[in-house]
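Following up on my earlier thread - several people asked me to post the actual chain instead of describing it. Fair enough. Here it is, all 191 residues.
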Amino acid sequence: MKTATITEAKNQLSALIDQVRHGETVVITDRGRPVARLVSALTGAAAPEEPAMSIVRAFESAFNRQDVAGLLACFHEDASYHDNFFGPHAGRGRLQAMFERMFREGRDYAWTMDSVVESPARAAAEWTFSYVVTDAIPRSAGRKINFRGMSLFELRDGKIQAYREYFDTGVALLQLGFAPEALAKVLARRL
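Reply from S.P.:
Thanks for posting it. Predicted structure:
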């Protein structure tokens, strides 16, 4: 077994991967302590079958590419989507309009599913979300918005049937520039 420091691994990654391809295991260390291990993904001469991408990861990937068609492919025709900003939407046409509006009103999206738990019937994800508001929303244009939240996905036949999210709307609205009085009015409607 070979060891390499983080710096060595960074500077010699191609050579280390070549060694791993030939059966070597490489332990990456930080200040002498093991922190990671490079091992071959090959079993015999053939690569193992890759697991199908989770629908939550496919959703995350399509959203971050701002790929509306890719997003819609994650949902059933009659799916529902409850968004804390844009409200409830149902059916492919309404979901398409909602995603197009999101991408018109924001840019530089980064939606990272930090933790995903998934079964064939449902999934839950804890996430970090950020974007920059475009000129389509003049009062907030140029503001960087960042918050954490959680989503629940109801699944059917490997696709999303229903989506809903939970996050502190007040945190997001303050970053959008809402005055505390206006924020209180918006949040009072939810009681």
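DSSP finds seven helices and nine strands in the chain. That should answer part of your original question.
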